[in-house]
Amino acid sequence: MNIPLDAGVHCTDGPGGHTTAIVVEPQAQHATHIVVQHHGSNYLVPFTAIAESGAGGVQLRWSLAELAGAAPFEEVAYVGDEAAGGVPVPSAVVPFALDPEYAVEAVELSYLRVEQVPEGQVAIHREASAEATDGRAGEIDGFTVDQATGQITHVLFHHGHLWAKHHVAVPASTIAHIRTDVVMLSLDRSAVSQLPDISS
Predict the structure, then answer these.
(1) Global pTM value
(2) Model confidence over 57-68: pLDDT tens digits?
(3) Is 107 exposed, middle or buried (0-12, 13-18, 19+ CB in 10 A)?
């Protein structure tokens, strides 16, 4: 089955947001999770929760309540001045005072969203790069995966200009290496350009 990036997600009882990443175990070339964004939060959804997936989106075996109870994909880590007392605050705290006499200096803090990728695995996000042996070959659209095992069988990506995009599927046997947001291929760009377009 095809697991697309930035595709609609449907739970058993209603729309569940959209996919933002696919988590894979790079050595085994195995898809383990999808990341689903629903109401502004990102959830780590195991591959086994997918009932079916394709051009029409991803259908989960889960209800909306089960999705909301999934492991969060991101945690917020705050970075700032110790004077803030170690209390997490938004990235910019702007004090409000009716009387300038009581105005205080703004405390500037920032925060990082830290992705909770399982150990030994990597996340492939929308617009991740497919790299040929001689340079960038295109942007990753998703993967074709064996439904029973989660084994990646093809990498799906597109190349070309906006008005002349070519969507291709290359077999997993051409994957040289996978790292965060990069799939390295053993093909050169000339070989990629000769692959058939799978859009039709």
Answers:
(1) 0.81
(2) 999 999 999 999
(3) middle
